[in-house]
Write a structure and sequence with these properties.
This protein has about 150 residues and is α+β, with helices and mostly antiparallel strands. Helix content is about 50%, strand content about 30%.
């Protein structure tokens, strides 16, 4: 699994450690790690203090790959922040989408109601047509009896 981490020096153990900041959930979705999660780099592995890195961890928590996150951060800035996509913009778009969804749901409910009303009217018209046919038939039959 891929994590965004920051390098810190562990003075007590005299070695560097990675503080995990966020975890990749899907290609475009990351979750912040609220609690402090730390992975020791091991003796002999030194990285610049406060450096942001992308770290790939195995299922057992072993470090598989570490790379500087500078290019990744710059790509995020280029993709999202230079085009005006901000958290506020995304929130507004999510609200618009939710409003649109609710409006479509209301329209769908109204359409379903109208369909039921039309079906009920059609059945009423059919019943009236049948009653009219019966009345005509009975009247015609009565005319034959009277003549």
């Amino acid at each position: 699994m891929l994590y965004l981490a920051q390098v810190h020096k562990n003075e007590f153990l005299v070695q560097s450690e990675l503080r995990l900041l966020a975890r990749q959930e899907t290609d475009n979705m990351w979750a912040m790690i609220p609690e402090e999660a730390v992975i020791l780099l091991g003796k002999g592995k030194h990285l610049t203090e406060k450096l942001l890195v992308l770290v790939e961890l195995s299922a057992t928590g072993e470090i598989e790959k570490i790379e500087d996150a500078s290019n990744w951060v710059l790509e995020l800035v280029q993709k999202y922040l230079t085009t005006g996509i901000s958290p506020e913009f995304l929130r507004q778009e999510a609200e618009r989408a939710e409003d649109w969804r609710q409006n479509l749901t209301l329209q769908n409910q109204d359409l379903a109601r109208r369909t039921l009303e039309l079906e009920a009217r059609r059945e009423q018209i059919q019943a009236l047509e049948e009653a009219l046919k019966r009345d005509k038939s009975e009247a015609h039959h009565q005319d034959e009896i009277d003549s």
